[in-house]
Hints:
single chain; 3 helices; globular
Amino acid sequence: xxxxxxxxxxxxxxxxxxxxxxxxxxxxHAVRPPREENEDFFGERFGPDAFLVAETDGRLAGFxxxxxPTPLASNAxxxxxxxxxxxxxxxxxxxxLELVLAAVVEARRQGAVRVTLRxxxxxTPARRLYEAAGFTVExxxxxxxxxxxxxxxxxCMGRRV
Length: 161
């Protein structure tokens, strides 16, 4: 297994992140339609500073988004993982776990005391990954999304940093 290097995202990563997100898009984890090929990955809401990327074998292997869940000062002590993807060739090599753990470290560096996330109830691999990183289920919104004609739970998870 190659070394996994996690680093802050750069604006120049934009095209590779669009390709990665489109290649890994699935209703197993996504509730919005896939991004268009010509659509930028970074936007007005979240720029490169909101993402960490993993590289292995000299290639971009995955990303994780880490953002404040709201703009409220009363919620400034929390960071939320919004978006995690690992390229198919890099799966099973620990990239996802490294990204999630790096996000927890980054949240602590930013002064957060909690990290939260939302994961679809039917996404068993992601739920196992988050549990391996110390996240626990804190709530479930039953049937929150209708995906491919099936109602899917939204599972809220969190952990202290």
